[in-house]
Amino acid sequence: MSSPLSFGWRPRHEALEPCAAWASDAARLALLQHLIAQPEERLARLTGLASKELLVVLGPAAELPWVDGVKYLGIDARAPGLLLPTQLEPEVHPALVERGLRTRFAAEVAPLAVLLEPARVASLASARPLERARLVDLMERPS
Q1: DSSP structure class, residue 123
Q2: Do residues 90 and 121 lie in contact, with contact meaning Cβ atoms separated by under 8 Å?
Q3: Does residue 130 sit in helix, strand or coil?
Q4: Helix axes 132-140, 25-36, angle to 10 degrees
Q5: How many CB atoms lie within 10 A of CB 56?
Q6: What are the tens digits of pLDDT across the range 48-102?
Q7: Residues in CB range of 56: below 8 A, 6 or more apart
Q8: What's the whole-model pTM score?
Q9: Which of 23, 40, 111, 116 has its CA 20 to 30 A from that of 72?
């Protein structure tokens, strides 16, 4: 499968405020363990979506889990329908990136998360409140 992103990235002059955390591989397991250990009231303030390969958690910056290997996304005002890496910006204007991705992924509902390493785009429209039982189930399933 080819990368959905045909442009490069550069460091941002000013980091975006994070509103989502995502992890794959070993970091996904560490993030699951961290979330399972959280009190119910904290989980209730977060939403997310998960697959065998990926876990995305959304919420206010102060509520997001900080775990080694987890990457963070924020909203750039120039492309409000995308969640982009907090520390990197596209080498092309973010509005052009948003327009291109909205065209390429027309069937996906916004917001779209732009994930790097490996490059992929994920719709966050189906994010739901985090439930401990679901997190435990994801932890027990082999990836």
Answers
A1: E
A2: no
A3: coil
A4: 140
A5: 24
A6: 998 878 899 999 999 999 999 999 999 999 999 999 999 999 999 999 999 999 9
A7: 20, 21, 22, 48, 49, 50, 113, 122, 124, 127
A8: 0.91
A9: 40
